[in-house]
Design a protein that fits this description.
By secondary structure, this protein is an alpha+beta fold. The chain contains 2 helices and 9 strands; from the N terminus they run αβββββββββα.
């Protein structure tokens, strides 16, 4: 009897996934619509900040330096892939033209992250969107 209980317990432990193998549930992305983007500012040649609906600030990081030489008053071209909702970096297409001239250079969007209210408040005044 003791052997049978030990075998049942051992098989249950062996079948249970380890703590490292269990993935944390994905946190639902905060999506926004392109029509909710109210303003943008250029942080540096790789960073763009977006004011979304006056309630959120998103940081967009680029792999290339497509924003090099741009100021926050230069126009940018924002497009979404597919449905119009932006939920991640892969949903965003950005073009940038220095001084509004020429064809926009394509930005390779690396990451899109929503800033916490304290992170947004801590941004220097010149890059707050």
């Amino acid at each position: 009897m003791k052997i049978a209980i030990a075998l049942i317990c051992a098989s249950t432990v062996a079948a249970a996934p380890s703590a490292r193998a269990v993935e944390k549930p994905a946190v639902a992305a905060k999506c926004f619509s392109m029509s909710d983007v109210r303003n943008h500012t250029v942080g540096d040649e790789h960073t763009l900040y977006l004011n979304v609906a006056g309630r959120s600030v998103y940081r967009v990081d680029m792999r290339n330096n497509c924003l090099g030489g741009m100021s926050s008053t230069d126009p940018i071209e924002l497009k979404s892939h597919g449905s119009g909702s932006i939920c991640g970096a892969e949903d965003l297409d950005i073009g940038a033209s220095v001084n509004g001239g020429g064809l926009p250079s394509r930005c390779i969007v690396d990451t899109l992250s929503r800033l916490t209210p304290s992170q947004a408040a801590a941004l220097p005044a010149k890059v707050k969107p």
